[in-house]
Structures are given as C-alpha cells and as structure tokens.
Protein 1
Amino acid sequence: MKKTILFTGLLFAALASFAQLKSEEKVKESIMAIHNAIFVQKDSAVLEGLITSELTYGHSGGKIENRLEMISAVAKSKSLYTNVSAKIISVSVENKTAVSRYLLIGTETKPDGKVTELKLNILQVWVKVNKVWKMMARQAVKVS
C-alpha cells in the first residue's frame, strides 16, 4: 500500500513538472513572437493576438502605453532596428500567470538618422487566456 501511494505521488509530481516545463516553453515562444513582431517585422496583427486588452507597456524612458497606443506605435514606427537579439534570462510560471525577463541588445536608427545602442532588461507579465499566453504588462530598463 505504501509503495502504491509513493508511486502515485511520484507520478503526479512528474506530470506536474512536465506541465510546468511545457508552459515555460510556450511562454518562451510567445516572448520571441512579440519580440520579432515589434523589433523585426513590425507586425501589429501578431501583437493583437498576443497581448491582453488590459496591457500596460512601459518603455525604458518612462513612457507608458496602453494596448491601442502600443500597437499603433509599432505599426507607425519609422525606426530601423538592426543587430537585434533577445536572450531569455528567466521564465517563472504559476498556474495561469507567468513572469519573464529577457535581455534585448541591438541598434535603433531613428528617421532623423540618430543611432542609439539598445541594451534593455525587459520584464513581462503573462496570463494564459483560452490556452494562449498573452502579455499583460511589460517594463523595460536600460542596462549600463
């Protein structure tokens, strides 16, 4: 009887661990999809599917945008991003909520020709909505 209980407990723990890893991988996929939609493709359709209606989007300079402002800003952006990479630092999942951190490195060239080196630590909060991980909040800070 004790062996059966122990085996059942270990089985449930293994299944929970597998589910956690699967959720973390899905969040990582969503991080990269949003990163590419903003900095590579400037694809507002992808963004619409991956952010919540309650989005709060914080820039490293202090500006905060809501969902509509953020999507519009990405679609209208004339900045050119080059050598942009994303290194995922951490993803932590708890039920239907996840917190992620990643490092963004690259170069932004503004329409006036001004070039800025980007090195940002980005914190994101994700919620699972109808089996899809959607970003609910984002805050970027400059890394010196």
Protein 2
Amino acid sequence: MIASADYARLMARYNAWQNDSLLDAAATLSPAARAAERGAFFGSIMGTLSHLLWADLAWMARFDGGAAPRDGIRQSAAMVTDWTAYRSERAATDLRIRDWAASLDDSALARDLSFHSGALGREVTRPMDLCVAHFFNHQTHHRGQVHAMLTAAGAAPGDTDLFVMPEETRP
C-alpha cells in the first residue's frame, strides 16, 4: 500500500501546519506583492495559493463527495482573489481534510477511485491510496513554489521539515 490511513492523518496535520505558516508569512506582504507576477506556473503567490485551494477542493470532492469548485483548472488561479475570503476558505478546507483523514481506515484506501479528470479530459480509475499520495504530494509541490516566492519577496516562512512539526499537530 502506497498510503495508509495513518499517513493520511499525518499529512493532513502537516498540510494545515504548513498552510498556516505560509499564510502568516504572506500576510506580511501587501496585497499588490501577493498578486505580483513572479514567473511561477500560476503567476503570483495569490494565484498559486488559489490554485492549491482549488485542487484541494477538487480532490476532496472525489474523496468525500462534498462540493467541488465550479470552474476548471484554467480558472483555478483566480478562484479566490480576496485575502480575507481566501484565509477563511483555506482554514475550512484544512479542517475538512483533517476530518476526512480522521475518518479513514486502511480498507478505505485499498479500493479504486473513479472520477472525471478535467486535466486529462476523461474518466479515470486509479488506486485510492495512489490518489491520496498524489493529493498530499501536489500540496507540497505548490507550497514549495509559494515558499520560494515568499522568500524572494522578503517574507519569512517557517520550517517545512516534517520532523520538526510541532507536537500539538503531530500524531
């Protein structure tokens, strides 16, 4: 098995911790600095954060059957442009992810997941544990981009190493 229920719970806590760290650092920048084009795939700090939230909502809809984003990946960088609204939606989504992960057992990850992939333009079926591993890997990938953009903009995001995650967020 690629991803276990324990892995999902650990990564859900890590996800929330890292999002809090990045958003605290991003909050030290002006709205213009967060929106400035920085040459990243989704353009700006805000655009990349918005895409990350969009993707988390898309995957969570597949995982828990809840609401999915209305628009496709091409519009993901502009899904949420208001900072206050973004922070609120990010916190709610991180809680949704943690609640979902808390409900998992390994048997839930041992099945296949079928869904429509907008990126591929077709229905796909993949092992659930692979999809969960991808979900958390995708978050880490884009948070790394945001971390680099924040650092270049003069903000100071915190540690990103999993082993230094604070006790209150670890299992």
Protein 3
Amino acid sequence: MSFTNIDLVKKHILEHELGTTNTENVPCHLLGETPFQLPHKNILPNSEKVKGKEGNVPTQENISFSSGEEVSLSHPELIPDTVVVAKDSSLGKIFVENIDYSIDYDNGKITRIEDGSIPQGSEAVIWYLFFRIYAKDTDYRIDYDKGQITRVASGEIEDGQWVRVDYTVEFGLTNDEVIANALVETNDQILKIIDPTYSNSTDQSLVTAETYLAVSILCNIKALEVMTQNPDSSAKSLSLSWSNMSSAYRERAFDLLKNFKKDPGALRSPYAARSTK
C-alpha cells in the first residue's frame, strides 16, 4: 500500500516551486525566420511573453495621489531603469524609487511610499519607456519542447530585431507517469524499512516521509537530466544543486521513518552454520 499519492507529491512540488522556474528578459536576436535557441527547453505552454521596446521617446504623464496611494499608468510592461518621477516637469525635485515610491513594472502601477518625500494627495510627473507585447502565431512561433522562438515574416517583429522573452521552464517533475514510477520505487524502499504492522497505516508521518522520498527521487532524476541535456559550463553546478536537494529530502524522509523501523531485537529466521571441523 502506498502512503502518499501522485496528487500529494505534485502538490508539494508545485507549492515549493520545484517543478517550474520563471525566467525574465532573455534577449533574443530574431534574424529572418531562423529559430533562436533560448537557454532552456521544456517551456511551459503559453507561459511566454515576447516583448520589444516601443519607441525611444519616454512617455510623460501627470499623476495624482488625491484618490489613493496607487496610480495606474496608461501602459503596462514598463522597462526597468527607464522610470523618472518628479514633483513637476521642471525636474527641480526628483523622487527616488523604493524610498519615495515603488513601481509595479508588469502592470504599470506606481505607489506612493507613506514615509517618503511625495506628500499625501499631491501631484507628480512621471516619464517611462514601455514594452510592446507581440502575439504568438502572428508575430512569432515558439517550439516549447525545444525552447526555440522564430520570427513570423508577416508579423510586427522587424527582421534582425532584438526582443526580450519571459517564460516559465517546466522541469517535468509533475509528469504523472514519472511520479507514479517514483512512487513504486519509494514504496518498495519504505516497506523494507518499516515494521510490517505499519504497512496499512495512515499516519501522517508516513505520508510525509513517502512524499519526501518520492521528491528526492525526482530531484535526482532532474540532476541526471541536467547533465545530459545541457552540456555547458553551468550544467555541473545546476546538477549539483538538484543532487543536494535530493539528499536533503531523502534525509528528512528517513528521519521521519526512524519511529517506524523494524524492531532490531526481533527473532530472526534460523540459518545453517558451517562446520569448522
């Protein structure tokens, strides 16, 4: 009997962000219709955002905090390090990010910091550049498995243009078949360790231990996968990171299993002793 299940293992992986990782602002040079190889493969479908700088002249807006501490700007997807906020258009008093205000770059929002220099209910002027978001299959095509992005000639991306890409990498740790195989191996290991009286137990410690051991196996699989799929200079350190994570989960699992081990004082089956005569 398995103590955990696929859903519990998957839930643990997702909640602890072991199965995916977010990558932002990867520069891509799109030439003709030649695929550009991203640094990662196995990209989570529809997680990508392909963007390019919309003009070189900053957008200027007059903003007011009279109705609240947060103001929505006319455009989302602001470009980092291009925002300037001042008391007025003369630029006589320039406010400082993360001291006087904070910026939500993705959603295009500015928030006044209460103990900063921007007075409550006051007005200010903001300048910024923003990204244009391109459309899949209209402006570009993407191969999620291979991690390749290709410009569509009839789209809005110019030949030779540099764009930036955000995406989520899916490590495959949440694949049901892979998890199921890990659970078979895990359950076999645990049943060899624990006392048979616990074989049908629903004790939460056993559930957690088997979940941790399954995650350990999956992390070890990922460590091997990194070395074979990414033969670059960073592969060794990344693989080591997954191996260390595997060891940590395995250690936590066996620490939980200590209270369920077979009694070492139990009688063993008799065996024949070899005669010395």
Protein 4
Amino acid sequence: MVELEHLVASQSKLGEGPVWHPQEQALYWLDILQGRLHRYDSYSHGHVVVELGMVVSAMGIRQNGGMVMATKKGFAFWDPTSGRFDFIDNPDPDESDNVRFNDGKTDRQGRFWAGKMGGSGSNSLFRLDPDCSTHRMENGISTSNGLGWSPDNRLMYFTDSDAKVIYVYDFDPQTGEISRRRDFAHIPDDPREGLPDGLAVDSQGYIWSARWGGWKIVRYAPDGSIDREIPMPVEFPTSCTFGGPDLTDLYITSAWVEVQPGKRGEQPMAGDVFRLKTEVQGLPEPYFMG
C-alpha cells in the first residue's frame, strides 16, 4: 500500500527538480519561473525559500559543496553561503524567453545531465562532466524532461514530454555514452492522460513518472508495462525523487502555472509538495564530482 501526504504548502508556480540531500536529510526543489530554491528539513520540518534571481530548472548536489545547476544562462555552480553563481558553459545559447534548460540529473559517475525545451522544438540533451567539459548527447528533442538510470547502471531513461514518450538507451557507465534509443513507454494521445514529466527509478528497476495534466503518478515495470497509478489531488504533478532515512519516501512536486484562470480554488494544493510512503526503496542520490 501507499499513503499520500500533503507535505509543504509551497505554492510554486512551476515546482520542479526535487533532489534529496542524504547528508542533510533535506529535500531541495525549484520554482523555475519565480527563480526560487526551496528546502525542507525532515528533522525540524522547517521550510526555507531562497531567491535565486534567475530561472533555474534543475540541480545536483556537488561533492565539493553547493549545487551544480542548469540555469537560463547555462550550467553553473551555486554557493549557498554567498548566493554566488559561477558560470561554466552555455551550450546553444538563446536569448528568447521560449528556450531554456529544463529537467536534469546527476549520474552515478558524477556527471550532470540536462536538456533544453522550447523554440523550434529541435533541442538537445547535454552532459556536463566533472572536468567542466560539455557534451551534446542527443538532438531533435521537443521538451527535455525526466532522466534516470537502472539499478545496474546499464540503461538510461529520458523523457520528451511533447512527444509523449519515455525513451530508454543502452548506457556505458564508464564513458557516459548512450546508444540504441528505443521507446520505453508511449503515452496515449488522450488529454486525460497528460504528458510524461519528471521521473525517479527505484531499487527494483521500476520507473515512477509524473503526469503533467494527468492528475497522477504512474509506476512502470522494467518492461514498460504499467504497474500502478497513484491519483494526485493536483492536475500538474511535475517530478519526483526518493528520500527519507531509508529512501522509501517519494517526494512529488507540482505546479499551478497552467491551472485555468478561476479554477485554482478547485485544487488549492496546486504548486505544493507531497510525500508518498511506499513499500520500495529508491536509489541513493549521486553527487556531482566536480
């Protein structure tokens, strides 16, 4: 059985990118469009909001302290003490408001991956290595989204939301190369099903995918079949990550940005964070090694 809890009334316009910090036993997430970083302390239950001053869409924990982030101005390191950004690289720079990085995640070898969205719909997925070199890993993506790796580290999952597909690749953990892309799950062309958004992989190799506009989280078996669906009290769940002392808590972010005007009262928790008590463990959050 699973139990869903309304955890933090963060009211994020576009809550995204949840990351569990194992040392701090704290959850971090972003409000992309309002340029805010949120932190929830699982010990004190305190909720802190930091104004970042720019669009930041994804992040990973750095081994050397602070965060690696995907920002509107490219990849950057962020220091929580000073609030300073040290910019690294901005692949495919675009000054328009329509093109930006979207979801991202750190692999177990300490490399940070993030892809772009918007514009012409021909975007790329990039990999930032610990030596701060940037590599284009995939092209022709409309809206880059959820990323994750199988427990044996031989498969990588990557979501293109507008294409309504979660891809799976063969993954070489030593080189970081991906190959042999194929469809893992294709979402039916039905507005009630929503779009695939952020995802998390559990220790059994199952994939938990948030359904933007679909009012639910979907758990997929390793063969791509649907194992279960968890109804949500919000229309736009955005992403999820495992955390908690034993990694059995699934934290889920959400958004209100596309809730129809005049209807936010029908889903007052839109933009908040939820916690799903599960019977399975997630995988530990890797650190960016640079």
